[in-house]
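#struct-help
A.M.: can someone run this one for me? Single chain, 529 residues.
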Amino acid sequence: MADSAVPLLTRLHAHEMAAALRRGDFTAGELLDAHLALASRQDERLGAWLFLDGERARAKAREADERLARARTTGPDALAALPALLGIPVALKDLVLTRGQTATAGSRILEGFVSPYDAHIAERLEEAGAVVPGKTNMDEFAMGSSTEHSAWGPTSNPWDLDRVPGGSSGGSAAAVAAYHVPVSIGTDTGGSIRQPAALCGIVGMKPTYGRVSRYGIVAFASSLDQIGPFGRDVRDAALLLQAVAGRDDRDATSAPVPVPDYAAALPASDDEAAASLRGARLGLPRQYFVTGMEPGVEARVRAAVRALESAGAQIVDVDLPHTDYGLATYYIIAPAEASANLARYDGIRYGYSSRAGNVLENYLATRGSGFGAEVKRRIMLGTYALSAGYYDAYYLKAQKVRTLIKKDFDEAFAKVDALVAPTSPTVAFPFAARLTDPVAMYLSDACTLPVNMAGLPGVSIPCGLSEGLPVGLQFIGRAWDESRLFQLARAYEAITADADWRRLEPADLTALDDAEARTPAERLATARA
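D.P.: on it. Structure tokens below:
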């Protein structure tokens, strides 16, 4: 392969890479090397990766090439039977355990921890022949909406390096947006896939709670966490979810529900995809146009809704009255579960340990210096909500409101096929803009966290730009109805295929190749000053 062709490999979608690998246009090794070279050259200015393991990834790429070579000698049927992600680079958020590799969850308290086993999704990706170049940056223990709370430094947004990529899965989103990988894995507790997908201009899917096993995933809030895919188009996100979804007996919350072939259900042509909107009933919840939503964001979302209506969808105004309580409810339940989950980090069994004296002094010093400010804040909030005398007043009441939020969705879905709404009330915000105001940061997830409270699936897709930055459109569906959401998202891609903004790349990609450009940590320090 000519050297001039190598950079073009990173611009292909995952499904295009898969087809080209089967044709023999290039090898999985060449594909990996193109992505590793780009990530290695640019990541000092992007901060998307916590580590890259080229040696291990190249070994997996060689295995993929051997499988491809054997299938070619067997015939077309053998090639067609190969897994869709064979040889495709896939990034993992650094809370996914992989045997023999570190997993820090963005926290110093897990510094030095090496996983003795693979997460369920790591096993599934291994079976699929995917190639994992490394682990991506994230807010510590997935607590944040900006990836500024990582113990290892922030991540920049490829559209504007002085702005955040969203969070907590900001590293995974930025890596896809910057073409370091075609697809990646994130987790979504209150919007941590969909919000960074919106801010980085890519596709992000939060599946139904229980669709993907959480075995081997560092926990934040166990009744809310869910693993899901990022991709640069809907088909790629569908392929990745297909690879990791399904029942796992090691996770009691993993549901024994059949997994459809998401990608096969997607229309092949734009015309067919657009036609699928005719007669679709889409609910537009007024509560999602929240106070403080930027005018440009609202304008892009309402324009997207009009485009869906023009293509044949019926838009129905719906009421979700308990949405207004979603933020307060979430920030009682999630910290309460976090306070319980994070109690295991004691500096005795694994990870970081501070030796300050006796056992109690060591314990307090380890947690005091190992956890960051945001994690400490949520542990204290959660412990307070669960404490004697306050459990009924806060946690129990929040669980009752959670039931009402779920009931609102059930009543809405009796009238419509899916909901359409904004993903984030704002575009990507500047570094440090919300660090001193936690409530303002929490409001970043106002449009996404009700979906987690109800355990439903949601997908964010790009719907244009506001002030040169991406805006996300969100589809929300019934439980287990990811296929329908992928179809709706694919239909929106089809009816906007000729839009000028679809031909734009992130504006600051060229700056990532400037060796003199500032690092994300330097940009954050400047913003704080």
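A.M.: thanks! Residues 213 and 252 are 9 Å apart (CA to CA).
D.P.: also worth noting: The domain at 3-328+395-528 is CATH 3.90.1300.10 (Amidase signature (AS) enzymes).
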